[in-house]
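Lecture 7 notes: from sequence to structure.

We start with a single chain of 451 residues. Read the sequence below before looking at the structure.
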Amino acid sequence: MEDTIAAISTALGVGAISIIRVSGPESISIVNKIFKGKDLNEVPSHTIHYGHIIDNEEIVDEVLVSVMRTPRTFTVEDVVEVNCHGGIATTQKVLELLLTHGCRQADAGEFTKRAFLNGRIDLTQAEGVMDLIEAKTESSRALAISQVDGKVSQLIKDLRQEILEVLANIEVNIDYPEYEDIEEFTNEQLLPMIKKVKHSILKILNESENGKMIRDGIQTSIIGKPNVGKSSLLNALLNESKAIVTDIEGTTRDIVEGTVHLDGILLHMIDTAGIRKTNDIVESIGVKKSRQLMNESDLVLFVLNNNEPMNEEEKTILKELESKNHIVVVNKIDLENHLDLQLLENHIVVSMSASQNIGIEDLKKAIKKLFALEKIETKDMTYLTSARSIALLKEALCSLKELEQGLQHGYPMDILEIDLKKIWNDLGQIIGETYEEELIDQLFSQFCLGK
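Now the structure, written as tokens:
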């Protein structure tokens, strides 16, 4: 990180202003070479200065330049931000001049990566920055800012401290057995400590399911045979005519998607091809994709026609859904009933008429109840959200369970210490206390340029 990087930090296009961000040891002197105004090398930190960006003697743009000196900056390096007029040509010209005079084009996420490597933020905070940029609801914004503020990191740090105290007790007993005034640390004493840590991890994991839901939403597929009203249901939920609705079977051959906001949670709705046996090659591909989505979704809305009895294929699907989060939608209640409702006794059922917009609110209430959305704590958003963090925490939990079994079988303390150190390191990877270069490169490459 000895070089100086630059990138456009605002979206390219016509706008009031554009910001080019520069970070690194030479950032102030490089910008000073193309700035006509005060000598930036002499100005105080955290000040803004009016002037012009010049190319030799030619004025490129009228600008405001912010100068922020290390260490009180996002990257902990000298940072300069050039605020120029919005517009692609002007912004690109200023960036071109910076690159010509010694800057390097920043990689995606490199400013945040430098903040992490310089100790300004940890990995969960870095992931929170990305989540904050991508937040689409108030709940996901609040969740992201909790990560950026370090509240989530503190959960993991507290866990590691608990383990560290246990390790300290083990170390003293192993390294200094000759001291009689040191109390012998036994498996019986270690077991309740391990159970306490395990309980804390389980609590975080359970709450993190809420966090993942807030961040990623609920992947919802609408499943059913042709012409039961799946597309009408999607249109009613979205309150727009997104899917084509006809009386012809097989109209929907590929997936149609839309998003619904429900108490701060996004429902990613997918209207699938009607599930039936067909000789049409294109439609059969759609049917295969529908079954795949049914297995991958967080929620399945299984639509039945109130006006028709269930066929054998629908009964098979109903059986397959027993182990999944699902709601049976009995559609077309405005028509005469020919569906045997007794077959649905052990399922969550919502009766509605999608085309008449009857029962939509009942369906939303059923979804909220199924996922306990009203019980999700939105005041204290201290949840882990990334798949990476949750996977590491689950790995630590598995190791703890094995350690617990080892204690019950009377394994030697020095063997147990090795397992405990691995758990401590696994938790360290969540916040970046321990990491691999490849992981860091992959994580920050997902950021946008200029962040």
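Residues 187-216 form the longest helix (30 residues). Keep this in mind for problem set 3.
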